[in-house]
Design a protein that fits this description.
Blueprint: H1 29-34, E1 46-47, E2 59-60, H2 66-69, H3 80-116, H4 122-163, H5 178-181, H6 184-207
Amino acid sequence: MLNLQDLRHFTTQYIALSYELRLNDSIKPEKKEQHSEYQWVGLEDLDPDNTSNNQRTSVKKNEIHEYTLTYFGLPSDMKEPQYQILNSRRDSFNNLVWQTPVLSLTAQAFLFTIILADGTPQMGRVIAAILSFFAALMSLHLLYKHRFMEKNIAKTLHTYENIKNWYSINRKIMTPNWLLSQSSYKLWMILLGIFLAASVFSMILIFRGIFDC
């Protein structure tokens, strides 16, 4: 059994309770007045626009309590034009995700050319190393931010596609190939982290006078 000391590192706790409901004539009259009927509802059964006559869509969104809808992970009452806008926005963030490391590598190549070049004065090397450090740091932040936005928009779009029973173009594609299954985003984060460490290491070497030898 966990005590309060064991939970001090957790910021949120969830308690999930499962129930079995058996319907029969023994339900009290006051309960029948409060609940007219009971139904098992899945995500594919919901109509987010409350207008569909599709037989598969048996429950309208406004017929379910708002607190219960939270567990479905539903987006707000999204319309198709909003879906298209979000799709375009996801594409923009996705493009920015991969533009960030390319631009960062260009800047790092230029700065390390200055740091390692013969005849560069110490002050020039120091300035280049400082710029390299902040360029790598800001690139890591920008890459993380763009990836965060792209990933969360994709989740919203994927949920909406499931609700509308559309082909899911925003789903995560799984591959059995080990190399392709590795996250390119994480690999680029590691590479930018290496440049961050290399800039710090370069400053140490500069102040020790290694490049002047």
